[in-house]
Specification:
With 451 residues, the protein is an alpha/beta fold. It contains 16 helices and 14 strands. β10, α13 and β11 form a beta-alpha-beta unit. The protein binds nicotinamide-adenine-dinucleotide (NAD). The site of nicotinamide-adenine-dinucleotide has 26 residues, from α1 and α4.
Length: 451
Amino acid sequence: MLITIIGCGYVGLTTSVALAYIGHTVHCIDQNEERVASLQQGTIPIHETGVLELLGEVGKSISFGTWNSFNSNSDVVIIAVGTPRKENGDADLTYVEAAAQKLGAIISEEKLPVIVNKSTVPIGSARRVESIVGHCLHERGIKKQPVVASNPEFLREGVALFDTFYPDRIVIGTTDLYAENILREIYAPILEQTFTPPDFLPRPVGFTFPAFITTTPASAELIKYAANTFLAMKISFINEVAGLAERVGADIKEVAHGIGLDKRIGLPYLNAGLGWGGSCFGKDVQALIHYARQYDYDTPLGRATIQINLRQREEVIKKLQSSLKIIRGSTIGLLGLSFKPGTDDLRDAPSITIINRLLELGAHVKVYDPVAMNNCQKTYPELDIHYARNPQELANGLDAMVLVTEWDEFIDLPYGRMGELMRQKIIIDGRNVLDKQLLESEGFNYIGIGR
Ligand SMILES: NC(=O)c1ccc[n+]([C@@H]2O[C@H](COP(=O)([O-])OP(=O)(O)OC[C@H]3O[C@@H](n4cnc5c(N)ncnc54)[C@H](O)[C@@H]3O)[C@@H](O)[C@H]2O)c1
């Protein structure tokens, strides 16, 4: 199958290399020429575990270019461009609509590809893309109607390839049988698990076949928003309980374990901490609230989910105020910048909110992250912070250290020795991943979330 993917970002790039790996020929288009040039040279513009390695393995099955390189023989075109949040909470469809316009102007009459919307988009967007492309075709004197299917993406950054090869389900929203069949064929090696797993990504023991869900475009679009809102709500729920645990002297880790083992609840996404970040949860929950409002329908769970998440970031400041008393003039170190491990993504990252608050309160801020520091310097050049070369340099002269991102390598750092470099041995474990007893035995004042 010849597949064109529009957008070489976290989703587009991961999907491209995965589809190339399972046997398709993939051409990935981006409007960002710098991005395309770097991909053509074999370097990737993002940090996503395993993508670079797999790109090296797929060789000529994948290619990159700008719109000029569009291949009109494509069987399928997958739109995977960004849908950022507008001020009012709505999803900004500028990029999706621009891609639809381009497609309407460029696809060939002889071979209309099935257009697939993988971007997270408001309900009704498949129809909107269909009408934009259809209108362009009409203006070119082409009488054919394009087919647009919805295929929401559920991958998690940091483990995006794993999620692509071993998904729980693949959702297709279309009423067109040809589109449904062609998508089933594209995903067949994943649905049937017939591909040979990459060495670094073995098939999990006991992995069963993913479900293939076919539904209407509207349901597929709502599935995506509802899934993200539920996951965000689950995190906010445990964070709400964490606040209570702190007050009554319970340990939220034990509480979460105790409730998560109930199969109706489940353990994933029950980790109390600084809350979620990233490009999706915030904007998708806001978008769900926004669409509901258009129908004069209130969504209090969605609103509370966001409110609690913001409160978690402020909790860190409160904990620092309570242990240091005065933040002004103190030196605070952040372990981790990316919104989660395995990525350099800083979109809606708790680290940036916390840094800004600390700077506002007059602290000197030092940071260390194994991969996201370049991105931070590039994206937030205005931040007056010190980038440490390693955790030891970070620890030097600190009044308090805050673990913001639970990178594996932060779990076993030589905290004892790092503590000797600190002015005050205060550590706030914003992800509840450190060994409380060990740190306390090394003289730290350990402060977790909900413990
Ligand atoms: N990042 C995630 O974890 C994730 C997970 C599931 C779904 N999604 C959804 O997938 C979509 C893409 O997200 P992302 O994180 O990959 O975004 P991204 O910003 O990393 O990548 C988008 C890419 O699209 C390119 N682009 C924009 N408009 C274009 C156009 N008209 N023509 C060609 N290229 C264009 C941009 O230059 C950019 O490289 C969003 O709707 C997002 O909500 C993201």
